[in-house]
Amino acid sequence: MTLSVKDASFESVIRLLEANTEYTFLYEDRHIAEIGGLNLNFRETDIKVVLDKCLQGTNLSYRLMNNHTIVIQRGVAVDTTKQKAPQKMSVSGVVKDVKGEVLPGVTIRIKNTQLGFVTDIDGKFKFDFPKQDTVVLIFSFVGYKTQEFQVKNDKPITIVLKEDVTEMDEVVVTGIFTKAKESYTGAVTTITAKDLQRVGNRNLVSSIRNIDPSFNIADNIDIGSDPNKLPDITVRGSSSLDVGVRDLQEDSRSTQSTNQPLFIMDGFEITLERMMDLDENQVESITLLKDASATAMYGTRGANGVVVIVTKKPEAGRIRVTYKGSLNIEAPDLTSYDLLDAREKLQYEWAAGLYENTNANQTQELWDLYNQRKMDAERGVNTYWLKYPVRTGVGHKHSLRFEGGDEVYRYSVGLSYNDIAGAMKGSNRRTFNGNVFLSYKYKNLTFQNDLQVSSNRSYNSPYGTFNDFAKINSYWTPYDEEGNLIKVLEDYYYNSLNRRNFVYNPLYNAKLPSKDESRYTQIQNNFAIEWHILPELFVRGRLGITSKTDRTDVYKSAKHTDFDNYSEDDYGRKGTYSYGTGEAFNYEADFTLNYSKNFMEKHQLYVGLGYNFAQEKNEFFTILAEGISNVNMDFLGMASMYEKDGHPQSSEGFSRRMGGIANVNYTYDRRYFIDASFKIEGSSKFGSDNRYAPFWSVGIGWNLHHEAFMMDNNLLNVARLKLSYGTSGSQAFNSYQAMTTFKDYGGSSYQGWYGVYLMAMGNSDLGWQKTKQLNVGAELEFFNGRIRVNADYYNKVTDDLLSDITLPSSSGFGSYKANVGQVANTGVELGVNVYVLRDTKRDLAWLVGGTLAHNKNEIKKISNSLEFLNDQMSSEDGGNPSFMYEEGQSMNTIFAVKSKGIDPSNGKEIYIKKDGTETYTWDAKDKVPCGINEPKIWGNLNTMFRYKGITLNAIFGYRYGGQMYNYTLVSKVENIKPYDNADKRVLYDRWKNPGDNAFFKGVRDFTATNATSRFVMDENTLECRSISLGYDWEAKWLDQVGISYLTITGYMEDVFRISSIKQERGLSYPFSRKFSVSLSVRF
What's the rounded Cα separation, in Å, for the pair 235 and 262? Predict the structure, then answer.
């Protein structure tokens, strides 16, 4: 062998010998610690010569054992070729985890020596070594706690290693840095995989809402349980104004809700749609970051809160296979609909004077019509139209995961498929997810790569809007006596209303060939590398690349009723096909340096430095073609022309951002701690003169339970107080809002030059919305964790709101984007969990808990453009109230004209003007704040009972103290024409005769009911969101067939809802109750 070293220690020489020869050395560290200053230079020399030189002048000797092990010990040198065989010890056994799975590749070392071995593929080991008085084996494996075992004899041993996975309630995963919860000042909620399994089986968004009420999902009575619609989510109230347009969500592809939180998965941003389609079985934990101390590190994107998702990483050991399958049922919930039956509808029509007329001839014709309908009703015609577009949807969900590896290599492969069958016929959402995760460790370097593929296809119901069926009279039938589908249910002119009523059968279009679907495919690759330079210092780099393609297809056949009014000249235009396609490509990278050190036992310091940059690019194209004469040809290529007077539409966006971050945490004696973060970030979305902005936070905390006077306290075990203040930003806006943009005149030209017009004026000073937030929090535990209390108070003020500035009319343009406005959110969050019973010996536990949230929203300042919009809305008529932006009011304030009620003498409504006088005349200028469409308090109630392998969970949600405008009373009781079906209250509760004390105006009063405080009602709601009952098998036969665990669970979701407001819910798409049974098994 060849060896050359200078001033080297004997230990370093041994390492070189082990690295370059087949020999392994066995020695005690203390024996060789003093041997150093070795200068060696050997070429093609035997190892014996090298060892003789190293041990010259010492009292150490060496000998060869087992042809590959050299033992170094005290004593006189012995000729290894002639010595007697030393006495040996033998040890053998197997290493397993707590679940009984064998662990291959576990390192086994004899304490105070460098001799080591590893377990084989079956987790077994066996080796011999020189006999010693005391032998202690050290077992170590990545991801498991190191364990020592003293060998007393040569009998086989079984070692069980426990996972060294830091419990989720001990750390906080922020997506950038991982912090110890004990010294973290931010307001966070951590949700484990077990929590997700306990609270529901629908999707991750609903599960988070069931755990933390600050993650609020707006109750949308229009979209109901439509699986293809995204919810509106806020965290700690709304911080942004949707300004300058009536409906910010008009184009869901390019416009994102400005109050939506940021979603981060494994360090990289994902969309809400991706979050909804994630397989919850691949999720390890979810952390909800709520205050500035937690979100400042996300700079321009953290103002609305951050949801951090961590997916499961592979466990070491032999190959494990995990499967979970669910059978899911969605049953339409139509209990909120209380429509008139055939007889009641005829009574209402008669009372409303539908069959009266001054012309005697037509009066007889009307009476004949009435009598015919009454005869039909008497012979049993009473069609329940709501049954036709709905179904009991039966879907299924499957998740399969393979994982394994050793201390060096780890891998996992995950596959999932989710088929959601909605409550309306033809409504489906099918999602496939797949991922491959690889990890390789080489010395102090760790490489990880996660490739994820997601494919989705969604189908909207061909039955259209659910409310179309709710309006149809029950004395009509969809089919004639011969079973043929009726196209037109009524075409009649009512003189009493001076109006023609033309009604199509809503089933007609539903039975025609049609298409309304969308799809996307997303490929995301996340690569990470970690370099542990020192035990207290490591560097991490990550790169995420995402590519996504979208497509939408909407086809209407030439027989669709939309084309019935086409003229003869437009006959060839019947049959349309809308085709949209788009793609997005994003990349994001970050680099972080993490340093953590303990000093003199009482001082703990953490420093994190980072840098990130990202780019987002997207484009979308839409083509509308027409003239598809063959109803069965649902193909774009069959169209004969583009849309009349139309042309292809497109949109695109491109933006970049970059920033640097520093985070410091210091803890003294585990009692006092301080957190500080600073980030400076720039984005191309904002003005060229204002692209960079600083964001920061500082927090302090006190672990009161570590004080000397609290150490022996059996009552209060944990008392942590926290205070933080900081800033974060928001940039969920258009890529080009700061730039002056133009649009061409649709192909028009002059002398070969194409003309353009101004779309939007630029603003080089446009900057970020900045949110300042104060948070005061407390975490308490009593009686060894039997009672846990978490409380937070926050004050959240958003400055520099993006809104519109009105320009003079002489400028030729209405407004431009600027930072003007301020909104404040102040609130309280409280959570309590109590173990009523907790007996680990009997595996018995009963947990009861609840959460409470309160938020007050107030607009502090608005732009002059919003004031102009308010003036417009305050002067408009309409049955719906206005939600105007007015300083001093909430963003959710309901504006309507005050009402004294219905005058018993004549059935007319009495309005109260702003000056307090009463009138029968409704005036839009008298609109005043009449309520706030947000509860004073809301939250969850939960209970968990476990005995042996049986677990029962129940989650309830409540809302108290808010107001809601009852749209049903307006649209289905008063603003209703008597020829449409309606709520039963239109017959039984409307004013009919002088002296009636009625809530609703006269039954023959067909004047429009405008926004009035009469329909602003207090909303108090209790709903059962989820009930689950599960059983974990622990039978011996499971081990015999290779099963680690087997669990079966039944779920019921959206079980019931009790509300102080009676109104129709699910107008465009019905709500549903969900039932499912799931089976989880691991091999």
Answer: 10
pLDDT per residue as tens digits for the range 628-679: 988 888 888 888 898 888 888 888 889 898 999 999 999 998 889 999 999 9
Q: How many CA atoms lie within 13 A of 1056 on its CB side?
A: 3
CA angle, 581 as apex, 578 and 584 as ends, to 5°? 155
Alpha helix stretches (DSSP H) within 830-898: 864-874
Q: What is the DSSP letter of 974?
A: I
User: Which residue has tokens 């019921």?
Assistant: 1052
**Other Cβ atoms within 10 Å of 409 Cβ, number:** 14
User: 3-74, which class in CATH?
Assistant: alpha beta
Residue among 450, 386, 385 nearest 423 (CA): 386
H runs (alpha helix) in 321-466: 342-351, 360-378
Copy the structure tokens of residue 913. Answer: 């003007």
Cα 812 off chain centre by: 43
Closest CA to 508 of 491, 475, 485: 485
CA atoms within 13 A on the CB side of 498: 1
Q: What is the spatial distance between Cα 224 and Cα 393, in angstroms, rounded to a whole number? A: 15
In contact, 188 and 289? CB cutoff 8 Å: yes
Helix, coil or strand: residue 1028? strand
754-775 pLDDT, tens digit per residue, is 777 666 666 666 666 788 999 9
Look-up of token digits 């008063």: 974
3-state DSSP helix/strand/coil percent for the chain, to nearest 5?
Answer: 15, 50, 35
Considering the entire predicted model, what is its pTM? 0.79
Alpha-carbon span 497 to 514, nearest angstrom:
36
Report the number of secondary-structure helices (H) and strands (E) in the chain. 15, 56
Phi, psi of 343 (to 5 degrees): -65, -45
pLDDT computed for residue 920 by the predictor: 94
Domain 88-161 fold is: Immunoglobulin-like (2.60.40)
More confident residue, 637 or 601: 637
Average pLDDT value for residue range 137-153: 79
| End-to-end CA separation in angstroms for the chain | 49
Question: What are the angstrom distances between the C-alpha of 753 and each of 185, 649, 747, 750, 759?
Answer: 62, 21, 10, 5, 19
Q: How far apart are CA 1059 and CA 1050, in angstroms?
A: 26
Ranges of each domain in the chain: 3-74, 88-161, 338-389+468-504
Spatial CA neighbour of 1079 closest among 420, 312, 414, 327: 327
User: Do the beta carbons of residue 754 and residue 748 sit within 8 Å?
Assistant: yes
For residue range 537-568, what is the model confidence (pLDDT) as tens digits? 899 999 999 999 999 999 999 999 999 999 88
pLDDT of amino acid 78 = 44
* Cα dihedral value 264, 270, 273, 276, nearest 10: -40
Half-sphere exposure (Cβ direction) of 717: Cα atoms closer than 13 Å:
10
Distance CA 256, CA 301 (A): 13
Q: Which of 779, 861, 848 is nearest to 820 (CA)?
A: 861
**C-alpha span between 540 and 610 (Å, rounded):** 9
Distance of CA 624 to the CA centre of its chain: 33
Q: What angle do CA 420, 423, 424 make, to 5 degrees?
A: 110
- What is the model's pLDDT at position 715? 87
With cut-offs at 50, 70 and 90, classify the pLDDT of residue 418.
very high
Q: Which segments of 288-396 does DSSP mark as H helices, in order?
A: 292-295, 342-351, 360-378
Residue with tokens 């609305």: 304
The two domains 3-74 and 88-161 share their CATH topology (first three levels equal): no
What radius of gyration, in Å, describes the C-alpha atoms of the chain?
36
Taking only the tens place, the pLDDT of each residue in 846-893 is 999 999 999 999 988 876 666 666 666 666 666 566 667 788 888 888
Which is higher by pLDDT, 1072 or 139? 1072
In the 8-state DSSP scheme, what is residue 486? P
The answer to whether residues 365 and 455 touch, using CB atoms and an 8 Å cutoff, is: no
